[in-house]
Amino acid sequence: MNPIAEFPPQGPSFQEDGGILFRTWAPDHDAVTLVVWSEGQETKIPMEKKDFGYWTAPWVGPTDGLRYAYQFSEGRWYPDPVSRWQPEGVHKPSAVFLPGRFPWRDQDWRGIDRHDLVIYELHVGTFTEAGTFDAIIPRLPELKDLGVTAVELMPVAQFPGERNWGYDGVFPYAVQHSYGGPEGLQRLVDAAHQAGLAVLLDVIYNHFGPEGNYFACFGPYFTDRYRTPWGKAVNYDGPGSDAVRQFVIDNACCWIRDFHLDGLRLDAVHAIFDFSPRHILADIHSAVQADARRLQRTVHVIAESNQNDVRLLRTAEQGGYHLDGIWNDDFHHSVHALLTGEQEGYYQDFGLPEHLQKAFEKVFVYDGCYSPFWKCRHGTPVGDTDRTRFVVSIQNHDQVGNRAQGDRFGTLLPPAAQRLAAGLMLICPCTPLLFMGEEYGERRPFPFFCSFSDPELIEAVRRGRREEFAALAFRWETEIPDPQAEETFRSAKLAWEFSSELPLPLGEGRGEGGRTIDVHSGLRTLYRDLLSARRRWRPLRNVQHTRAKLIPLPDSTSDKNALPLLLVERGAGRGLIACANLGPAAAPLPDLPLHGRRLLMSTEEPRYGGQRLPDQPPDGLVAHELLLFGFEKWQ
User: Fold this and answer.
1) Contact 359, 582 (CB under 8 A)
2) 267 is catalytic
């Protein structure tokens, strides 16, 4: 055996003679057989054992769409763990997919710089009525017009059934067949690049789903040394872990190489356990960026973590993993708890104006200070780290979908508070992420849904949802939608209603000449204008100079429980000044250091459906209003 280990990519690889060499990792088996179904015939080919538990077998014959599986000595065959295509679902044979045959048109595409990222998170199955990759393509111009620069797809790796959030995937290389399969994803990415949009993909390397999970039948993909909230942890640092690490690294690279994706969002990296000398996250980033340099494209590797740990961003010399960005839920929690009043579960750490003020200035609210929810000190200071490396949101799939009924801001908050939340996020120096539909105040929910086939698993998921909400002690006294029911899935389909002809809720504003402005179209216009301002106004592009302070209301204010105003300054010197009324009542405008600045925008302007009257002087703030002051020459 070679003293220096080499761990080659698994799966079918194409040979110069036009055939295929199949390779799989099954170190604990004495014999492995390749089973091929071609032209109505089943063929069995004994595989040859190689170093480190790999097995290989050649095939010469029809290739594209060829069905195959691996059989062990007990007689049962299993789909390929690195299958690129499962056209008949997770329990059926794998199919050969030839990624190089797609006629790409994006040869001149170089990606989107991190400082220009505006991310739009969507779920393929519910973004459109058809629920496919191809159905997304006609919507791309609308997202470009809105000001989005990158679409982030929730996981598309093959999962059981035809409806799922995607976090129960069991074939990390295969593209969900009900979405349109691998060619459908290639068509979407190519069309997005033609429209000037990047495409990021949510990938899961901390666990694999419960149904159709055949990894343990092949080798030590899992370890009992750690546990995740979703079951056994992936084996990144125990016996056999070298091949597992290569399996994951190759997977990350294949999305960039074969599907031309512009980045990866790594799910819940706090549940990736690795005490190797070099962490798997560092290896993933290094391999992906090597491919990006070879392809001459900008690629982003962004982690989701609940640890507020800036080590994820630091270089190896600084003891870090050198990722390009991380999610920052503290901003979401600060806005959500303040505007909704919810303080149960993890929201108990938030809800004060001071939390929002710190989120603007320091990024992490919990940056080493004591957290009542975690019951210990939590997080690390950010220091002068580039703010665009932190992704913030006011809604996302987790924070909406992990509610009992998946209710959104469109039903939780009055329209003015929705506009304020949007304004706060889009003047923040961090990278903004929008969740599909939030830009027009979507009212349809986004609950958790799935389509398993195992009755015991289905009941376990139902029971787990009930127990989860009971443990979080949220104030939800309502029936939890059945995650297995098709109606739960269908209820999450976007309405796409932001026509100005829609009925206007009582109390909403009127535009010029008394024309009614619909809350949906008005909110979408606000998002578009604010995203335009982020591109054009110099202070909003200066991500390193943000100051925030709270201004108490005068003692004469009738409501003694009124919230202070939030004053945010963006940019050094002659920068932008933003004044936010965080409360639900009108408030006097304080004496601001405007120094020649004029009012540029209000979230309560009539064209946004707001309450500010035409030509009303800015001597006060209406409820939940955000005023932006600056200089005309920016525009």
Assistant:
1) no
2) yes
Q: Which of 168, 190, 202, 304 is catalytic?
A: 304
Catalytic residue among 152, 267, 442, 604: 267
* Closest-CA residue to 121 (of 358, 400, 341, 337): 400
Q: What is the Cα 553 distance to its own chain's centre?
A: 38
Q: Which pTM value belongs to this model?
A: 0.95
Token couple for 333: 């929690």
Measured CA to CA, the distance from residue 242 to residue 263 in angstroms comes to 24
356 within 8 A of 566, measured Cβ to Cβ: yes
- What percent of the chain clears pLDDT 90, i.e. is strictly above it? 83
Residue 327, classed as helix, strand or coil, is strand
Task: Read off the CATH number of the domain in which 67 is found.
Answer: 2.60.40.10
pLDDT digits (tens, 9 = 90+) for 361-404: 999 999 999 999 999 999 999 999 999 999 999 999 999 998 99
DSSP string, 84-95: S--TT-TTSPEE
| Structural domain containing residue 58 | 11-101
DSSP 369-419: EEETTTTEEE----TT--GGGEEE-S--HHHHHTSSS---HHHHS-HHHHH
Q: What is the pLDDT of residues 209-262, one digit of tens each?
A: 999 999 999 999 999 999 998 888 999 999 999 999 999 999 999 999 999 999
Separation in Å, CA 313 to CA 202, 321, 325, 378: 18, 6, 7, 17
Residue 323 lies in a domain: yes
- Is position 106 annotated as part of the catalytic site? no
